[in-house]
Amino acid sequence: MAKIEMPQPGALTDLPMRQLTELHADIDARVLSIRENNADWLCGKGCDSCCKRLAEVPRLTAAEWDLLREGLTGLAADHLQAISREIAALAESAARPVICPLLDHASGACPVYARRPVACRSYGFYVQRDRGLFCHDIEKQVADGALPNVVWGNHDTIDQRLGGLGESRPLTEWFAEWEREKGAIAG
Ligand code: SF4
Ligand code: SF4
What we know:
Layout: H1 15-36, E1 59-61, H2 62-73, H3 77-91, H4 118-122, E2 126-128, E3 132-133, H5 136-143, E4 153-154, H6 155-163, E5 168-170, H7 171-186
Helix pairs in contact: 3-7
Bound molecules: iron/sulfur cluster (2 copies).
One iron/sulfur cluster (SF4) binds next to helix 5.
């Protein structure tokens, strides 16, 4: 997963957005702590395997979608149109795993990196009680004994906090609704 752009502080100030910002900060702290103690950590720009093997279409709470939509709005029109086509195709497909329709395949970068969903932020650094680690590449390092001292984040806590932000919906639904709204405004 990888990088671009910076968020606009204070752009959205409602309670779910504040809670989401706090959640981001806690994830960032956990990620920073792990990276500080493991200088050659695998996750980095161009490492996009996780973006290409999503178990399902990404689901986002309204606050996550609001943030992501800001990032999408900042993209060039032809880039956004290409993403729109990818999302429309994904909405019609039952193939799994899912390749994220936002991924820039040429660079392996995320075009909305600073505004990406929570799942993308925590992916390589958190474990879940029933599923363990999510990333096979990191899992292999653990199996090889390469990461004995990592204090992993607890993804069950992340899920609980996300649940407190309200219902989550698939990216395909949020995006289609946004396009309908834009179409209605454009007349
Ligand atoms: S979670 Fe795994 S695949 Fe994703 S960036 Fe990190 S090392 Fe690469
Ligand atoms: S939103 Fe960005 S980081 Fe998340 S899966 Fe898609 S391309 Fe990867």
